[in-house]
Amino acid sequence: MSLYACTQSALLAGSVALSAAHAATYHLAPPPLGNDAHPGTTNKPWATFARAVPALGPGDTLVVRGGTYAITNHVSVACTGAPSAWITIAGHDGEAVVIDASGCLPARRQHTGGAIHVQNASYVRIRNISVRNSHAAGILVRGPRTHHIDILDCRVDRTYCPGIGVWNAEHIRVIGCEVTGANMQEMRPPGARRRREAPHEAISIAGVRFFDVASNHVHHCEKEGIDVKEVSAHGRVHHNHVHHVRRQGLYVDAWFGLLEDIEFDHNLSESNAFFGMAVSVECRDSELRDVRIHDNVFRRNGGSGLFFSVWGVDGPRSGIDVRDNIIIGNGGRLAWAGPTGGIDMKTRNCRDVLITGNLCVSNAQFQIATFDNPADGLDELAAQNIVITNNCAFPFVDDTDHDSPYGRVYALPSAHSATNTPL
Question: Are 104 and 69 in contact (CB under 8 A)?
Fold first, then answer.
């Protein structure tokens, strides 16, 4: 390393250490205790996020006291912390902090903002804050110069757009949050044209690299639960509970290019109107690869437990590993979808797929079904290196002999899909 580079590194390290050493704790409270003319101390807190957030530097903490904060403009978070000096905005432990965005009307493009709007920010942690009644998103994180953002133990209720959405950012964690009432048409901005549907999903991860979405509770929302989409990469969705959403609980969908290296594990997706989980490539010139789906429970969903869809352009999927999932009691409640059941592979546009060690029990019209007709002897599964082996599927059901708008599927005979080996 050159002397100049060494000197610059030393100066940067010294700057970060100095910032951390001077880290401060500020306080925010609703009026009359809070007042923006105050110094932001425990006894004399500020009153508005607009006064408090811009004052935060590396290592600083803003403690938000309990109460309702009615906002007319979104809470803009554009702070820059450091790897060893994160900025924290947190509700006071044991107190309910609520940001009410009823009076916050989004600007021209209503689907691009959030009641809490994080952009051009880094090393920022938002914890224990609730957002409700947003005419846009609840909490929105947007890149491309946004990275290392934590959304922890937050709650979002009643939004037009996502409860929590992340676009084109890196190193993001959404952990321990609860989202309800997302994508509600009644929350669209006053005067805005009514769209066929509200934008996006309850938790939307779009074009995000290096992410962790874990231990969230998503329920009673108007569209999909958790969606990883566009060109997202290198992330994990795990230990979430998604139920009673009006579409699929979990979704992975490539748009605008390559989506890759995503893991879905230890999630419970149940009692959703559509599918437990769907795997799609809806957009032209897009591709999905290296997706691992394991140790999840998909149960009592209206459509199939796990659906390889033909939606959109039905683009290519490869390198998909489906193992050790419990898929029980799904299907039979979507007349428009044709036969539905356990594992449902309607698309032909996939290859290099392994489906093994799954327990498929008491699903409606099949336990495991694919596009490959065993009667024609073509063995299309083998030709595309789709291996379905060592699953435990019972009882054998084949109620697939009728039309579907998504194409025909064929139940795998019990010899191919059932073993005596328990999960």
Answer: no
